[in-house]
Amino acid sequence: MKDAPEIKLFGAGLYDPVNNQADSATQPPVAGAPLIDIRDLSDELSKCSVLSEPGWLSDDDALYLAVLCVQLDPFENRIVLLSCAQPCAVTNPPAWRYVNTLLLNADARALGFEKFSAPDIFSIRGAYYLWVSPVTESPFADAYNGCRAFQFNSIVDGTLHTNTKNEPMPAMILDGIPGTFNGACALHAAAGDQAFYSQLMLSSQDTFQVFRASAKACY
After folding, report:
1. What is the pLDDT, as a whole number, of residue 201?
2. pTM of the prediction?
3. Is 37 within a domain?
4. 116 to each of 3, 70, 78, 144, how far by Cα in Å?
């Protein structure tokens, strides 16, 4: 079986064409331009300047992608959901659709944080969830403060459970060592209730370590 070739799938507003050439000053690991400009998928994504930290989930119906879309004017860390119906022709731009914006900075502020980052999607016991890492300025700028998992009402429509104020509320919490940088969580059904997260250990030669823990249910 041949290895699948690496491609640049998605790009956004601040993508620099200098990265199209493998021998350019930036020496990109993969040459060529992104196949899809995320801004072309919807007017809602027209201000996406930077894409980061994609999280994927595949089921019988679609391939789902949760990704951080950074807007600069006005500044917004927008967690958005895209989908590609099965069998997904990943490299075909028309196969992809913008589903919905899942979380905004205001949703993070409602929980005492500044913004969200590091999205991932997982399914367990028949329910779908979105992981994100809350971001604050403690213990330093843009530090991850653990993870929060929000349950989908419908992953097809990109809607999350909300409270009576229509605010998305986490179903699970996972926090690492208090007062440290920790987060970017992942969970797979094969691991049961065990989740995995990165933990910054400044006192160790292995600065970034991956820990395993059980997420605490909120309800």
Report:
1. 87
2. 0.92
3. no
4. 34, 11, 8, 9
